[in-house]
Specification:
heterodimer, A: mainly alpha, two-stranded antiparallel ribbon, 6 helices, extended, B: mainly alpha, elongated
Chain lengths: 199, 99
């Protein structure tokens, strides 16, 4: 049964990669998360399953769908050269798999060990309590980073004063008439650079 | 019945790697990252099954899943900010690092 769930998971992962519509890809990814949660339940890991279902299939999907609806870009451009990279990726993963099987030949299990909610809670709050505080800091740092990324620019204040009879409201600051008082000439149009010399 | 999930772990990891290497859309890169994270979480849970320490590995998996969500949130904010400036999701348009 677990092999059937994992096969379905791989099919949805393939769909998530190859579908052209971004929204359908994200929904396929949500299906992958839900199937992974089922696999965790089948492996007697219910806490990880619930967390994967709520965070992976819930929160991340909502965030991604919201972003796609904001940016309104549903399709991606056509790609080229995928076959070469597919072969490179396949070779890399095959080498990794071979090395893993070589160095850990007993990586299969005849039985599944059971664990309840209390066991995981005890481990989290006793043995791994120190990990939780850096995790909270990471979440806070991420929130600050998102706020910094999404902040809007301050609007430029409109100048309403007038210089030498010229209304500056609709004139850029570089086109202000500058009077040359030394020579007593008529004011001419030039660059008003603070501290700079006239051309 | 012996169970071995390692082929599935590596297949999922390979799909994520393939997606990261071949796709240029920022949304597809997010999917590739997610697949890599899910393969890692499955490997951690499977290690707990093999080593008979399911509670410890589940707590590690919880940490991995929550950090994965943080990474996705920051990544989506970056995607939104990039799209606001360039009106594009193509990584080929990310040539200019100057702000």
């Amino acid at each position: 049964m677990i092999y059937f769930t994992l096969s379905l998971l791989l099919i949805f992962a393939l769909l998530a990669i190859f579908l052209k519509d971004n929204l359908l890809s994200i929904l396929s990814l949500a299906a992958v998360s839900a199937l992974l949660a089922i696999v965790f339940f089948q492996l007697q890991a219910p806490v990880a399953g619930v967390f994967e279902l709520s965070v992976g299939a819930g929160l991340i999907t909502v965030l991604a769908v919201l972003t796609i609806s904001f940016i309104q870009t549903k399709h991606e451009k056509a790609q080229s050269g995928a076959l070469l990279w597919a072969l490179v990726g396949l070779a890399a993963v095959s080498i990794l798999f071979f090395l893993f099987q070589l160095f850990s030949p007993g990586a299969f299990s005849p039985t599944l060990a059971e664990s309840g909610w209390n066991d995981v809670g005890l481990v989290l709050w006793n043995a791994r309590a120190f990990d939780l505080f850096p995790q909270v800091l990471i979440v806070l740092a991420a929130i600050l980073g998102i706020l910094a990324l999404l902040r809007k620019k301050e609007p430029v204040p409109v100048v309403t004063a007038s210089v030498m009879g010229t209304d500056l409201k609709s004139v850029p600051i570089t086109d202000v008439p500058i009077a040359d008082e030394k020579d007593g000439e008529e004011p001419h149009w030039g660059a008003a650079v603070p501290g700079g010399e006239e051309p | 019945m012996n169970i071995n999930l390692l082929p599935f772990v590596f297949a999922l990891f390979g799909l994520g790697l393939f997606c990261l290497l071949t796709r240029r859309s920022l949304v597809k890169l997010l999917i590739g990252l997610e697949l890599l994270g899910k393969a890692t979480t499955l490997a951690i849970i499977w290690a707990g099954v093999v080593q008979k320490t399911p509670a410890t590995t589940q707590s590690i998996a919880l940490l991995v899943i929550s950090i994965e969500a943080v990474v996705v949130a920051v990544y989506l904010a970056l995607v939104y900010a990039f799209h606001r400036h360039n009106q594009s999701l193509d990584t080929d348009d990310m040539r200019r690092l100057k702000g």
